[in-house]
Amino acid sequence: MPRLVMKFGGTSVANIDRIKNVARHVKREVDAGYHVAVVVSAMSGKTNELVAWCKEAAPFYDHAEYDAVVASGEQVTSGLLAIVLNSMGLKARSWQGWQVPIITDEAHSVARIADIPSANLDASFAAGEVAVISGFQGVTRDTGRIATLGRGGSDTSAVAIAAAIHAERCDIYTDVDGVYTTDPRVVPKAKRLDKVGFEEMLEMASLGSKVLQVRSVELSMIHGVRTYVRSSFDDPDNPQLGTLICDEEEIVEKQVVTGIAFSKDEAQVSIRAVADKPGVAAAIFGPLAEANINVDMIVQNVSSDGATTDITFTCPGADLERARRVLMDAKHTVGFKALETASDVVKLSCIGVGMRSHAGVAAKAFQALADKGINIRAITTSEIKFSVLIDAAYTELAARTLHSLYGLDKAA
Ligand code: ADP
Ligand code: ASP
Ligand code: MG
């Protein structure tokens, strides 16, 4: 019998009624003749609550214990869904990450899946069971402790399991009916895409579209898992297929810009009056790298007096305080006058493989943003995307402006 992975996110399992609705989706596929592995997230808001409790318990906590706490949300939903499926006459049982087992590396709170032996799931299917698996969690290979895969990690659990059991498809059910040209909650004119290429989806996910965790897209690409994003709010008896994540070659209609993503999790650091001499960039970015702070956009002004210059960069908002401390510690060696920071900024990115063959795509955006009076604090470009750093207050206006500029309001 063919196998199928169905993943349901937090909103889809937010209460018992919704879990019952999920069970109807599962029953449909079982009735259609699939062996089904269901991957569930915690009820929406639950993981945030658990994370907040860890922080409240102690500001600097052990990440292995954090994992023990935050993995619990998924344990509840997998058990509840199995109970509901049983009550509908289906054979089902819950599986925690350590029981499958989903084996990970030792990087607590941001663990990566190393291996998923399929023997237990094979046996479960052979026994005619639906396997209801807790997403987001696994067990570390060396120490046998509970590990979690980073926020949004249930997507990755689902795709990795689909690869391990050679599933025909991995369906990621969420609260929107597919991948859109941009976040439909921010830009009402966003259009659903029937298909999106791996590369573009990777960029969108890593630049802030949280509809899929980045690592899940990587795994889907590497293992050739046919992955769809679709809605759990569709009628379980008459669902739509959603968006397929696939090879670029499968997409007939190509736009220059396919999608717009934004990330609020950014902070800006500006270092004023740095000596303009060789070795300064190394003196600044070396210690930041050693402290594991991911620096993204970097802007260095041309010195006007030949002696000093300004350097601006961005880093994750969560690392801002650490970045400030690292730089203040290095102040003596670097030699600068002042440090300024801002966290009310957003990185807005336009993504499209068509940019490879079209010039001036970004320039059009700079003009359009200027026409709206939106100031650009920093810019980065690469082969298939460009990003601008702007004031957070302008996020919606900028996203809507660029969405219509690139013809996405009327995309197919
Ligand atoms: P789940 O709990 O099911 O994993 P998430 O909240 O993680 O769901 O992801 C779904 C959300 O992603 C949507 O509600 C939507 O607001 C947001 N999103 C951001 N960018 C996009 C996009 N390009 N297409 C669709 N949804 C997007
Ligand atoms: N519950 C986890 C989170 O909120 C994992 C997930 O939902 O994918 O991040
Ligand atoms: Mg998610």
Structural summary, described in words:
It is a single chain. With 412 residues, the chain is α/β, with parallel strands linked by helices. Helix content is 33%, strand content 26%. The protein contains 13 helices and 18 strands. It has helices spanning 16-31, 46-57, 63-70, 72-87, 119-126, 154-164, 198-206, 214-223, 280-290, 320-329, 331-334, 361-371, 395-405, and strands at residues 3-8, 35-40, 92-95, 103-104, 113-115, 130-134, 137-140, 146-148, 169-174, 195-197, 227-231, 243-246, 259-275, 298-300, 308-316, 338-351, 378-382, 385-391. The strands form three sheets. Strands 3-6-2-1-9-11-12-10 form an eight-stranded mixed β-sheet, with helices on both faces. Strands 14-15-13-16-18-17 form a six-stranded antiparallel β-sheet, sandwiched between helices. Strands 5-4-7-8 form a four-stranded mixed β-sheet. Strand 4 and strand 5 form a beta hairpin. Helix 1 (16-31) packs across helix 4. The longest helix has 16 residues, at 16-31. The protein is globular. The protein starts with a strand and ends in a 7-residue tail after the last helix. The model has no long low-confidence stretch (mean pLDDT 95). It binds adenosine-5'-diphosphate, aspartic acid and magnesium ion. Adenosine-5'-diphosphate (ADP) is lined by residues 9-12, 41, 152, 174-176, 179-180, 182-185, 209-211, 259.
